[in-house]
Amino acid sequence: MQIKNKLALVTGGANGMGFSYARELLRNGASHVAILDLINSTGQEAVNKLNAEFGKRRAIFIACDVSKPQELEAGFARTVQEFGGLEIIINNAGIMDDSRWELMINVNVNAVVRGTLLGMQYMGKDRGGKGGVIVNIAAIPGALPTAECFPVYTGTKHGIIGLTTAFAMPYHYEKTGVRMLIMCPGMTKTDLISKVPEKLSNSSMSPEDYKEALKKFPSQTVDSVAHGMMHIIRSAKNGSIWIAEGGEPVYQILIPDRLVTKV
After folding, report:
1. SS3 183
2. CB atoms within 10 A of CB 172
């Protein structure tokens, strides 16, 4: 897929990684980008910056709490009404806080399920759409349980990989023409990581131990992950899982077939 002239939507796009995805989409020629984020977020400020850099009305902000089904559905509907269609969706919104695990499941899993279904509804060739691409954001702990202080968070990211690879199966892809991809960012300099020590009250890991554990993982900038995102949108195969870590080029991983790993 070429990004030029495409219509895109990014959830959780007001700041951090989501904002960097939106900016890179426009840098790479996307026609318009909708940023969906909380009403009290910096979403309007974000689109003001993007429109100042790339041109008037290239980006729009839609206030939306993705954990609330009606708001997410309305956000997608308004995007399609404003742009006349959709071709790229990045389900990026997510939180990492096991002390609020029910909310986290709503944001990290339920909203991604709904965003995926809405994407197929609006982009699916079987619904009169042109096809397109949906990138669901997991994390390295989703492919390998490494976040011992946040087991529920880890479970949500495993769920995203299972969901997305299932929707990438030929039965769905041949009908919809919607390519399904998974991005798993590693340790990235965002508020999601920097504010973790505040959320460890119900964890067996102390803030000091957490900071020490972080040293084991290479860090990277949001822009590095965003560059990798453009690569996979352009060329990654349907159903593929990609890792972005340490500022290095993204790379694909494979989940072994159960018959291969059977002992």
Report:
1. strand
2. 18
Q: Which residues contact 83 (CB under 8 A, 6 or more apart)?
A: 7, 31, 32, 34
Task: Compute the CA torsion angle 58, 61, 67, 72 (nearest 10 deg).
Answer: -60
**The one-letter amino acid at 166:** A
Supply 262's token pair: 């059977």
Which residues are marked as active site? Answer: 153
Alpha-helical runs (H) found in the chain? 16-27, 43-54, 69-83, 101-105, 111-123, 140-143, 151-167, 170-176, 191-194, 207-214, 222-235, 258-261
Strand bridging mode 251-253 / 241-244: antiparallel
Rounded CA gap, 11 and 62, in Å? 10
Q: Which of 185, 155, 186, 178 is CA-nearest to residue 239?
A: 178
Question: How do the pLDDT tens digits run along the chain, 263 residues long?
Answer: 999 999 999 999 999 999 999 999 999 999 999 999 999 999 999 999 999 999 999 999 999 999 999 999 999 999 999 999 999 999 999 999 888 999 999 999 999 999 999 999 999 999 999 999 999 999 988 887 665 668 899 999 999 999 999 999 999 999 999 999 999 998 887 765 555 545 555 555 566 665 665 666 678 999 999 999 999 999 999 999 999 999 999 999 998 776 666 66
* Per-residue tokens: 138: 């997991």
Pairing of strands 251-253, 59-63: unpaired
In the sheet where 241-244 sits, what is the strand order? 59-63, 32-37, 7-11, 88-91, 132-137, 178-185, 241-244, 251-253
CA 81, 93, 130: angle at the middle one, nearest 5?
40
Interatomic CA distance for residues 188 and 220, integer angstroms: 5
3-class DSSP state for residue 226? helix
